Amino acid sequence: MKKRAVLRVVLAFAIATAAGFGGLASAGDETAAQAGEKTGIEGQFVRVAENNEGWVVLGYETANGSVKSKWMLLNVGITLQNGVRDQKITREQVKLVTPDDQVISMATQQEYMSGFATLDPMNARANIESQSINYFPAGRTRPCRIGFFGNMDQRVGNLSFDEVELDDRSACMGRVYFQVPDGIQYGQYNFDIQFAESIVRVPFKIMTAEEAKQFEKEWKEADKEHKK
User: When comparing pLDDT for 109 and 24, which is higher?
Assistant: First the structure.
């Protein structure tokens, strides 16, 4: 698994936040569930958040390029912190919070299939453009699939399930989908996963072309500086 030191994450996060792009939600938006949470950046469209219970990686390059679409595709990685008891994450525990504070539940498999004409080309685009989300703590040796959604043929290995089983050795990855009634807008979103005892919130910003260009510049400069 790819992994970076905490200093690497914190440094990049601090520089990007200072530049005014991405990063944590404002202090006024922070809830008790987010107290003590660490949030970082692993790429232009890759965010990481963790607390004492869970670790979540989010890739949203496809979503950032889908402004006005009523479907949002997110690439997600999940694991548990060392020593945390095994648990399951169900689709009801995964939420999206929009810039205007709407809380949206993850789509159902039936909704996904109904929207497949839109989602099939979106999936194809994601296969080409999405940045890696393979960033997990050391010791995650059991890859697993987040299988909330399956495609039309529902072949073995591509079936849909209503839950994901986690332990502190797993590195589970997959795509999740949300129907966004008003379409994807520019601004700050939150991706929330309810673990057994806490919520891990991953803030991410849908950026304009100008913001994305500036962010990429800041990120590359930070990455170069750190490697010196």
Answer: 109
